[in-house]
Amino acid sequence: MQQEHRDLEPVFEGRRLPRPDEEVVDQGLGFDIGTLLTRRGMLSILGVGAAGLGLAACGVDPESPASPTSSGTPSPSASSTLTEVPDETAGPYPGDGSNGPDVLEQSGIVRSDIRSSFGTASGTAEGVPMDLQLTVVDLAGGGVPFAGVAVYVWHCTREGGYSMYTDGITGENYLRGVQIADDDGVVRFTSIFPACYSGRWPHIHFEVYPDQASITDSASAVATSQVALPQDVCEAVYATSGYDRSVANLAQVTLTSDNVFGDDGGSSQLASVTGDVSGGYAVALTVGVDTTTQPTGGSAPAGGGPGGEPPSGGPGGR
What we know:
The chain is an alpha+beta fold and 318 residues long. The chain folds into 2 domains: 2-64, no CATH class; 80-289, Protocatechuate 3,4-Dioxygenase, subunit A (Sandwich). Helices cover 15% and strands 19% of the residues. The longest helix is centred in the N-terminal third of the chain and has 18 residues, at 29-46. The chain is globular and about 85 Å long.
């Protein structure tokens, strides 16, 4: 009778369940370890390690490049999915010496808060607060953070003008600044949300240089590109005072019709944004830079001479 009773007890892979009234997954750590060790012989035949089985049991594909590490963060190989940020024009108002004025030669350009002018200028740009964070990744170095690179950022005012170029603010140098990437490849800027002027999707310009010493020569830039801003956030900002003309300008352009982002709809340049109008917005983008490729951006578009104005009909333009 005792043997007959044992034959009726539930088993799993020939092993008696210590908790016959529970599911197989609820039999306890000892049972799980026993199952793992029993399978090791078969796993070695299939070429899969015990660690791989553990990942599979947790619902994680051990071959996936995005499999989490023990800390719960993506493994370094996850960066292999990041592509090089597209090279884009610096536009006619770079202020880097390639088209007239050169703010990068001025002492004080390395700063995180770019809302006010520095040096002999004293103006301050008004607008909805915006914090910008760019994370620069060294694709040629295996997808590691690009620590130590210098990132120059510039963008237009809430009226659509560019300091150093637009009538009335040629003596100002606000909304321009340089930061040096930290060990995580991150640079941060405090600024204001830019306008939408006629013919262009709302954007932020940036150039990446090998180091701080290189910023005095615009030809040394290893990447020149632009950050695209999401439509819903733009619409919320442009409904506030000071951005009035941006409403009509935004209605006349799309990411796919824009002459910069239009080739792919800004798929690798569209920032992620959190926040609101009252508290300000946090704008973030991860930027892949490949120093083994030849930079093709940085040139000003036709007709953008020194002292030029934003496109005709745009805020701040003629």
